[in-house]
UniProtKB/TrEMBL annotation:
Pfam families given in the database record: ADH_N, ADH_zinc_N
Taxonomic lineage of the native organism: Bacteria, Pseudomonadati, Bacteroidota, Flavobacteriia, Flavobacteriales
SUPFAM superfamilies to which the protein is assigned, alphabetical: GroES-like, NAD(P)-binding Rossmann-fold domains
Cofactor: Zn(2+)
Keyword list, A-Z: Metal-binding, Oxidoreductase, Zinc
Domain Enoyl reductase (ER) positions: 12-344
Family matches, as PANTHER family: ALDEHYDE REDUCTASE
Name of protein: NAD(P)-dependent alcohol dehydrogenase
The keyword Electron transport appears for this protein: no
Origin species: Aequorivita lipolytica
Family: Belongs to the zinc-containing alcohol dehydrogenase family.
Keyword Oxidoreductase: yes
């Protein structure tokens, strides 16, 4: 059995997002149904809608930063009830049996995680998963996240992707009070990296090519701003960082940033899902430096992040839009013309 719900999506890679009806499964024994209030706009939504990474299955209904209220639960659901404020991030299922799933790393499921959109739907044969640009969604109880009630709902939406993407490496590499932490790039990811590193007690340095972003970076919690185009300033900071979070979304020169790391320090990439420009192997050998990557986070870790945000009242800086303005928003995201994340008011879908 299925039910129809209103959504916004694309029928092909050259299409604008338009209204459509999609099918959602009925609530099963282990399921939670959510009436979606807000959905964040991630650059991954654009890449998938436009098939820029390849592999998109149409129609595509994007959206993996979902906030809403529970409207129904299956008989096996004990931790959520009607009316609860909840969220759904980048995943809606996994095998829940492999070593990675048992280690709370569902994003690395050995049988492949089921992502919130553009994955094979295990419950509706022949259909792919559809994301949060819709009025409702039905999700397995293990992938439902509790949202602290003190947080602004719209501002909490990007925590489910941008938030966990930056929180996970900061905590996995044990960033602590007093560490000198660099955050490269001030966008949807970078602004969350600054907020989290500051809240963890680090000395936060925003590293950017744009002097115009200095004031904003300091308002977000950066203690210093380093202009990466200024060779003299880069030289002053050489060999001084305990950790660098690199959120640059495209291929780029690595050597200038590697030079900033202390001996045994790590730079983690979370943005560039594409080839990087070649870098000098000597730059990591001479200093035993590390370059690593990180992909979102598991469900347990995401809940820990949300609880931390509730305790410290951390949300994303957003621009709230109606769904009818989503195509314009996509163009602005591509131009980096948003501070710092668009969030869709999903009530506007039924207007």
């Amino acid at each position: 059995m299925t039910t129809n719900t209103k959504a916004y999506g694309v029928q092909n890679e050259n299409d604008n997002l338009k209204p459509m009806d999609i099918k959602r499964r009925e609530v099963g024994e282990d399921d939670v149904k959510i009436d979606i209030s807000y959905c964040g706009v991630c650059h991954s939504d654009i890449h998938t809608a436009r098939n820029e990474w390849g592999g998109s299955t149409y129609p595509v209904v994007p959206g993996h930063e979902i906030i809403g209220r529970v409207t129904a639960v299956g008989k096996n659901v004990k931790d959520h009830k009607e009316g609860d404020l909840v969220g759904v991030g980048c995943m809606v299922d996994s095998c829940q049996e492999c070593a990675q799933c048992k280690n709370d790393l569902e994003q690395f499921c050995e049988k492949g995680a089921t992502f919130t959109y553009n994955s094979e739907d295990k419950h509706l044969k022949g259909q792919q998963t559809y994301g949060g640009y819709s009025r409702s969604v039905v999700v397995n109880k293990e992938f439902i996240l509790r949202i602290p009630e003190n947080l602004d709902e719209a501002g909490a939406a990007p925590l489910l992707c941008a938030g966990i993407t930056t929180w996970s490496p900061l905590t996995h590499w044990k960033v602590k009070k007093g560490d000198k932490v660099g955050v490269i790039g001030l966008g949807g990811l970078g602004h969350m990296g600054v907020k989290f590193a500051h809240a963890l007690g680090a000395q936060v340095v925003m590293i950017t090519t744009s002097p115009s972003k200095a004031e904003d970076a300091k308002k977000l919690g950066a203690h210093e701003v380093l202009i990466s185009k200024d060779d003299d300033e880069m030289a002053k900071h050489q060999g001084s960082f305990d950790f660098i979070l690199n959120t640059i979304p495209v291929g780029h020169e690595m050597d200038p940033y590697i030079a900033l790391l202390k001996i045994d320090a790590t730079m983690v990439l979370v943005g560039a899902v594409e080839p990087l420009k070649p870098f000098n192997g000597g730059s990591i050998i001479m200093g035993r430096k590390r370059i690593a990557g990180s992909l979102i986070g598991g469900i347990k870790e995401t809940q820990e992040m949300l609880d931390f945000c509730g305790k410290h009242n951390i949300i994303s800086d957003i621009e709230l839009i109606d769904i009818k303005n989503i195509n314009e928003a996509y163009e602005r995201v591509v131009k980096a013309d948003v501070k710092y994340r668009f969030v869709i008011d999903m009530a506007s879908l039924s207007d």
